[in-house]
Amino acid sequence: MIISMTGFGRGETTENGITATVEIKSLNSRYLDVSTRLPQRLQDKELEVKELVQKSINRGKLNITVNVSEADSAGPSIAVDTNKVVGYSNILRELIEAAGIDEPITIRDITQFNDVFINKEEDEEILEEKWKVTVKALKEAVSSLLKMRTQEGDQLKKDLIDRIDFIDENIKIITKETNGRADETREKLLERINNLIDEDKIDPERLEMEVAILVDKMDVTEEIVRLRSHLKFFKEAVEQPEPAGRQLNFLTQEINRELNTIGSKANNSEIAQYVVKCKEALEQIREQVQNVE
Predict the structure, then answer these.
(1) Is the pTM of this model over 0.85?
(2) What's the CA gap between 104 and 96, in Å, rounded?
(3) What is the C-alpha separation between 117 and 56, in angstroms, rounded?
(4) 219 with 262: CB under 8 angstroms?
(5) pLDDT of 271
(6) What angle do CA 173, 157, 155 make, to 5 degrees?
(7) pLDDT tens digits for 59-76?
(8) What tens digit of pLDDT does each residue of 74-132 get?
């Protein structure tokens, strides 16, 4: 199964007047890298968020944003610090008397002091309820992200297989071009050497051995066999249920290694052209594989 590392997922859950919204953006990454933005009162749940995500996702850079809100009927989340209100009132009265001002103290005068208001701290029961709603929204967002990554993965899979088949077709052509080439090369080498050197001074057995060694160095049969094996394993990895990104990356490197060797050993312009085509397709495969989980 091919799963893309890029995608977006969103989940929203509302229960008992509490609404949690979770958004996940996913990008390419060599490993799983999770960054979270949580409400202040849920900051201690960061590790649990990461652990929940790790159960479903193996690779990618994830940016998770969580927002939690309460219905208007829940009332304001601030309270009045009555002690400070009384204290500031007394201070203002003393100030008015000292200045000889004959004006009453107003609410506006007191609310100029910002710290007369305090945030209400949710009790543990409310916090736990918010966390439960957040977990449901998070699971929904993960599910949405996986769906999108899987859809993109299906498109990647088709593209990868098409390019692997393209390379395979070119390797078949190279195989035909190289069939019988060893014997032909051997005969040409012997002919050239015999034309350049006096036959009386040549040890036929030694000459045959040296030519055989030279021809063997030009033979690409083993490289073609290994290359076609790598292509076969690549297509099998694409179909397996486990994440295949790392395996595909390794096979891409091995395919490139064999293509380089074939190109350098073949010493033939026509074969070199087919090798170049294969390497162009392989480079596109390599770029695509970077996006596979």
Answers:
(1) no
(2) 9
(3) 44
(4) no
(5) 85
(6) 120
(7) 999 999 999 988 755 555
(8) 555 677 888 888 998 999 888 888 888 888 888 888 888 878 877 655 567 888 999 99
Q: Is residue 293 within 8 Å of 58, Cβ to Cβ?
A: yes
Which residues, in sequence order, are bridge partners of residue 70? Answer: 18
Fill in the amino acid letter for 27: L
The residue-averaged pLDDT of 178-205 equals 62
If you compute the radius of gyration of the chain from its CA atoms, what whole number of angstroms results? 36
DSSP string, 66-119: EEEEE-GGG--SEEE-HHHHHHHHHHHHHHHHHHT------HHHHHTSGGGEEE
Please tell me the distance from the alpha carbon of residue 65 to that of residue 63, in angstroms, as a whole number: 7
Tokens of 25: 């953006």
Instruction: Give 15's DSSP letter.
Output: E
Q: Distance between CA 163 and CA 169 in Å, rounded?
A: 10
Residue 216 and residue 209: Cα distance in Å, rounded? 10
